[in-house]
Amino acid sequence: MPIQFDPSTFNHQTAICGGYKYHYIDEGPKKANTITIVLIHGFPDLWYGWRYQIKHLASLGKYRVIAPDMLGYGGTDKPRIDNEPGDGDDDKDNSSKDGDQCHPAYYTKSLASHVVELLDHLHVQKAVLVGHDWGTGIVSRVGWHFPERVLAAIAIGNPFRPVTEHVVTIADYVKENPAFQYFEYFVSPGAASAMNARVEDFVNELFSNESGNSDKDRAYYLQNHKEGGFQGPLSYYKSIEQCHQGELYLVGKRFTVPTLLLIVNNDPLLNGEYCRQVSTDYFDNIEMDEIKTGGHWILTQNPDVVNKKLEDYLRRLFDSSTASTSNGN
């Protein structure tokens, strides 16, 4: 039986980043020699998906752990363009407004700048960034756009992708990995409204007992997704083809910060074979490791192994140079 966490027992805070209210968790010591770790969740998760990692890393006594609800999720703002339906149950009958465009705040460069503004709010010059699923894309863009703010970048289950000269389309993703066929539905008109109308079914399927969640965990996800709706979360998929123009200057740019790619061999969407095919040629300092047991929801399915992999990598990276890396000072 997994450990049961009460979300209310975590230290909840808010900050304004990019003009939007961000909700985040702040755990662990805040001493001068503390290294800050920022955990970035994916789709359709919340800060709560990191609950095991937050508690473990904070308990080590040398890491301050920050876990935000990303834009469009949970307690964080959910911007939308004028013709999009509202959040939650109110938009069930507005599928005609539920188009294929998204608010530019969801472009990866914007999201990366929000992470940097969160560091500014925390008075942290540099941090370790860890991403899972969609969160790895945001972590990678912080590392490419703002390498001076990153101590190390860790990707769990989804490799960092460099910016290419040509737009990588939804069709390209599906051709590369047929498991991504659901991308096409997520960017289709009416998808968010349809998912809002069946939010309980969707949450029960994704956050099942098999994915490492209890009934109480599922209730927390259901409450948040009922209140917030899926317009924000699906905007990440809609942004894939729309945000390319603003990142063209990154084409050919090397990724200079220390990087760990933690491959989840049995992830049905992002398995080991797929992850190893993504080029690592642009990385100056990359390590690859693997987890053999667990699937896509590895953070909750096999938290002890994830925690140990993170702890071991951070120890190798920082124990010999803590004085020069603490809080980026």
Q: What is the element layout, followed by pairings?
A:
Blueprint: E1 12-17, E2 20-27, E3 35-40, H1 51-59, E4 63-68, H2 108-122, E5 127-132, H3 134-145, E6 150-156, H4 170-176, H5 182-186, H6 191-197, H7 199-206, H8 215-228, H9 231-242, E7 259-264, H10 272-277, E8 286-291, H11 298-301, H12 303-318, H13 322-325
Parallel strand pairs: 3-4, 3-5, 5-6, 6-7, 7-8
Antiparallel strand pairs: 1-2, 2-4
Short structural description:
The protein has a single domain (10-328), classed as 3-Layer(aba) Sandwich (Rossmann fold). It is built from 13 helices and 8 strands. It has helices spanning 51-59, 108-122, 134-145, 170-176, 182-186, 191-197, 199-206, 215-228, 231-242, 272-277, 298-301, 303-318, 322-325; strands spanning 12-17, 20-27, 35-40, 63-68, 127-132, 150-156, 259-264, 286-291.
